[in-house]
Amino acid sequence: MSTSTTASVSTHILDTSVGRPAEGVAVQLSARSGADADWQALGGSATDADGRCKDLPDLPEGTTHVRLDFAVETYFEKKQADAQQDAPANRDSGPGVFFPEVAITFAVVPGEHYHVPLLLNPFGYSVYRGS
Questions:
Q1: Which of 47, 80, 118, 130 has a 20 to 30 Å separation from 53 between CA atoms?
Q2: 32 near 64, Cβ under 8 Å?
Q3: Helices (H), 3-113
Q4: 8-122: what CATH class?
Q5: What residues have CB less than 8 Å from 94, skipping those under 6 apart?
Q6: How far apart are CA 3 and CA 61, in angstroms?
Q7: Dist. CA 17–CA 35, nearest whole Å
């Protein structure tokens, strides 16, 4: 059993539309101490070539809830631009990105590590507590 007084968080993103890590996605970390407390922005990072954020900020003591904000719009816009260089895509007149951002909020307890993977594609996503 851990004796740490804070929880820790890590994440990674897999683009399930291509079966590869999503590189270059900005991730912001926020925390609060209680369901009615205000969110405190702690900072962020961006996913590396393996789709991982290895340098998210530490959580402050007393954190009970964490929010990860993934800015996926820029990632998908870059993917679309790269794809159109090879062959213009046929798409409807809707938005190029259905989910421009993904916000995941979860509860934490001191001493636990929370790995929260995001499985992402242009029209959906899923998330779970990993190991």
A1: 80
A2: yes
A3: 73-86
A4: mainly beta
A5: none
A6: 13
A7: 35
Question: From the centroid of its chain, how far is CA 102?
Answer: 7
Pick the closest to residue 72 from 105, 47, 39 (CA basis).
47
DSSP at 18: T
Q: How many CB atoms lie within 10 A of CB 72?
A: 24
Closest to 103 (Cα-Cα) out of 55, 50, 61, 65: 65
- Please report, for the chain, the start and end positions of each structural domain, with discontinuous segments joined by +: 8-122
Q: How far apart are CA 45 and CA 26, in angstroms?
A: 6
Beta strands in 1-131 (DSSP E): 8-15, 20-21, 26-32, 40-46, 52-53, 65-71, 102-107, 113-121, 124-127
CB contact at 8 A, 25 and 11: no
pTM for the full predicted model: 0.86
Quote the DSSP letter at residue 62: T
Give per-residue pLDDT as tens, 10-55: 999 999 999 999 999 999 999 999 999 999 999 999 999 999 998 9
